[in-house]
Design brief:
single chain; about 325 residues; alpha/beta; TIM Barrel; 8-stranded mixed β-sheet; 10 helices; about 10% strand
Length: about 325
């Protein structure tokens, strides 16, 4: 696991309590076909950490106990987990909403030619990372040729009915290229829609803007540039109390590739377990547990979720 970063330890971020756990966000592993500079997970092609079948079964047992309405799958590239399709099919049979957080390029990779069709068949929502609508910016953050591959993947999804008002939901995700807050989500969505429609005939449902977290690969980049303190000051200075009500950790449980549970994906990367459980609880330990009212582990990075218009896995909060 990853160690908590000392520069995040001392914080006066407001105390938070969770409402429950209606969303189960699961990291299926750090294996990915990309190595993006902003990645807070540190995922890449050489990572070997992948969730096994026994842990998948623990997830299903937790879901069967009731309360979860949405399974949110992430990684790495979650689709590269060998049990990804079995899990999606099993959860859809149970009537849950499924979100696949895709980097898009995986849809065009060898052996995954039918992946987009599988997602459409099972009605999975696709939340696709596209950090800019300009080729040079995307390739500088994600690697040469990634933009063109992403455009082809989006066109493939559109051809299957995604983003067309058919009920197959396609949302895009924007990340700033550096240590700055995202621009206004509605205004940027309009720019994305205009450009992608005009240049590539691409349609989508919503654009989510996410702030970059000062942890893992992006945190290391800030340290190497001598800009970490500047970025942390930016986040703190832009904090808005009204965003506290909508932060994702109030209703979400984050599960790592081994089945251990955290308040959010960022806390998972920092090895900050659920408070008050005397260690790292596993998903199997929480079956039939009511988590409502439990405290949430907060550190300095939490200002990344409340700065400006706010930031969550579902985009801006205000």
């Amino acid at each position: 696991m990853h160690a908590t970063l000392p520069y995040l330890e001392n914080t006066d971020f407001p105390a938070l309590q969770r409402r429950g756990a209606s969303v189960l966000q699961v990291n299926l592993g750090y294996l990915c076909d990309l190595s993006c500079v902003h990645c807070h997970v540190g995922a890449g092609p050489n990572r070997t950490e992948v969730m096994d079948r026994a842990t998948i079964d623990d997830l299903l047992a937790f879901i069967d106990a009731g309360g979860v309405t949405t399974l949110d799958l992430t990684g790495g590239a979650p689709e590269l987990n060998p049990h990804f399709r079995d899990l999606v099919a099993a959860v859809r049979e149970r009537g849950l909403h499924v979100i696949d957080r895709s980097n898009l390029t995986v849809l065009e990779s060898s052996g995954q030619e039918d992946l987009a069709a599988f997602l459409a068949e099972h009605g999975a929502e696709v939340v696709a990372s596209l950090p800019c609508y300009q080729e040079s910016n995307v390739d500088s953050q994600r690697g040469k040729g990634v933009f063109d591959t992403s455009i082809r993947a989006l066109q493939r999804l559109n051809g299957l009915g995604y983003g067309q008002g058919t009920g197959l939901v396609l949302n895009l995700v924007y990340n700033p290229l550096g240590p700055s807050l995202p621009p206004d989500q509605e205004e940027l969505e309009a720019s994305y829609r205009q450009h992608l429609t005009r240049e590539y005939g691409i349609a989508f449902d919503r654009l989510f803007t996410l702030a970059n977290m000062p942890i893992q690969r992006f945190g290391s980049l800030l340290i190497s540039q001598g800009r970490l303190a500047e970025y942390l000051d930016l986040l703190r200075g832009a904090h808005k109390e009204e965003n506290l009500e909508g932060v994702m950790c109030r209703d979400l449980l984050s599960v790592d590739w081994q089945g251990y549970v955290y308040d959010c994906d960022f806390n998972q990367m920092l090895d900050l377990p659920l408070p008050g459980d005397g260690g790292r609880p596993h998903i199997r330990d929480l079956i039939d547990r009511d988590l409502g009212g439990n405290p949430i582990a907060v550190r300095e990075h939490c200002y990344g979720c409340t700065a400006g218009q706010g930031s969550s896995c579902g985009g801006a909060l205000s």
